[in-house]
Amino acid sequence: MGAKRFGPYFCGIDAAMDVVSGKWKGLILWELENYGVRRFGELRRGLPGVSEKMLIQQLRELEEDGLVDRTAHPEVPPRVEYRLTALGRSLNTALEPLGAWGRERIERTGAARIHPLSDTTGQGAAAK
């Protein structure tokens, strides 16, 4: 795991982007915001295209930054759950205007949207 990131930074946006940089972190935060507590497999199914190695790495960094809480239950087979912390929820609140801008861009450009299989029934968002 890399060293914790503490700057130096040019501005607040620089510091914030350091925490959410990477293709998957914003999507992990979105998944946990929308679906609450998720197990690793549920997160992986909800994020088509992410490798197991990358998901583990991104989750560890989010946990190190205090945005995600990881709970390992002492069971056989092992059960690990992830949830947003209060700090993670506050970051999602801060990212909401950026998400709104992105949704407007999708509409403006006519870009395709992915509908991942993210619900707990396994039927996916596209089936709803």
Secondary-structure topology with pairs:
Blueprint: H1 12-20, H2 25-35, E1 38-39, H3 40-46, H4 52-64, E2 68-73, E3 79-84, H5 86-109
Antiparallel strand pairs: 1-3, 2-3
Task: Summarize the structure in words.
The chain has helices at 12-20, 25-35, 40-46, 52-64, 86-109; strands at 38-39, 68-73, 79-84. The chain has 128 residues and is mainly alpha-helical. A 3-stranded antiparallel beta sheet has the order 1-3-2. Strand 2 and strand 3 (79-84) form a beta hairpin. It is globular and about 50 Å long. The relative contact order is 0.15.
How many strands in all? 3
Unreliably modeled segments: 118-128
* Proportion of beta-strand residues: 5-15%
Give the spatial strand order of the biggest sheet.
1-3-2
Arithmetic mean pLDDT: 86
Order of helices and strands: HHEHHEEH
Tertiary shape: globular
Radius of gyration: 16 Å
**Helix count, per DSSP?**
5
The proportion of residues forming helix, as a percent range, comes to: 40-55%
N-end to C-end Cα span: 39 Å
Instruction: Report on the biggest sheet.
Output: 3 strands, antiparallel
Name the structural class.
mainly alpha
Q: Top keywords for this entry?
A:
single chain; about 130 residues; mainly alpha; three-stranded antiparallel β-sheet; 3 strands
Brief sketch in words of this structure:
The protein is mostly helical and 128 residues long. It contains five helices and three strands.
